[in-house]
């Protein structure tokens, strides 16, 4: 496949719609909404989309202006093991793919595999955010899986 996942998905606007759909589903889920119970940034969806865009082969806007992988990982660390929440977040993502009309089977499989992998990476430091090292590489995903230089 020649196009990046970001391009195959439809670019920035579709990724933003996907982030918005996922966030709506998470807020409606009785387990996943706990992750947002202490509030979230007013531009959460836009920031999330920028992160996803970069992770999926689009422009590096997130790391250029919003943060780095260590910061993102710290935000998701120190909350203990939450396997059920992770499974439900993935289910919300699959529903969000439906919401934005992603029907291409290879693209869906790739996106679901990426999201499951990303959830696992965010759980690498479940004991404490202080355990997250500085300088983690951006977690990028290709049609073949994690980009080798970025695998943690």
From TrEMBL:
Instruction: Name the InterPro entries for this protein.
Output: Globin-like_sf, Globin/Proto, Hemoglobin_trunc
Asked whether the keyword tRNA-binding is assigned, the reply is no
Read off the Pfam families from this record.
Bac_globin (PF01152)
Listed A to Z, the keywords are: Heme, Iron, Metal-binding, Transport
SUPFAM superfamilies found in the cross-reference section? Globin-like (SSF46458)
Where on the tree of life does the source sit, at the highest rank?
Bacteria
Membrane-crossing residue ranges in chain numbering: none
- Which terms in the Gene Ontology molecular function aspect does this entry carry? heme binding; metal ion binding; oxygen binding
What name does UniProt use for this protein? Oxidoreductase
Lineage summary? Bacteria, Bacillati, Actinomycetota, Actinomycetes, Micrococcales
């Amino acid at each position: 496949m020649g196009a990046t996942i970001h391009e195959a998905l439809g670019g920035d606007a579709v990724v933003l719609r996907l982030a918005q759909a996922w966030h709506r589903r998470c807020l409606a889920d009785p387990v996943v909404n706990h992750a947002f119970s202490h509030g979230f940034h007013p531009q959460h969806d836009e920031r999330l989309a920028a992160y996803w865009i970069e992770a999926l082969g689009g422009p590096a806007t997130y790391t250029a202006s919003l943060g780095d992988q260590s910061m993102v990982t710290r935000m998701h660390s120190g909350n203990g093991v939450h396997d059920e929440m992770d499974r439900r977040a993935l289910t919300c993502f699959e529903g969000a793919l439906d919401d934005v009309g992603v029907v291409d089977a290879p693209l869906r499989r790739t996106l679901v595999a990426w999201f499951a992998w990303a959830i696992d990476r965010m759980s690498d430091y479940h004991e404490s955010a202080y355990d997250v090292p500085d300088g983690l590489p951006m977690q990028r995903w290709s049609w073949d899986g994690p980009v080798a230089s970025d695998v943690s």
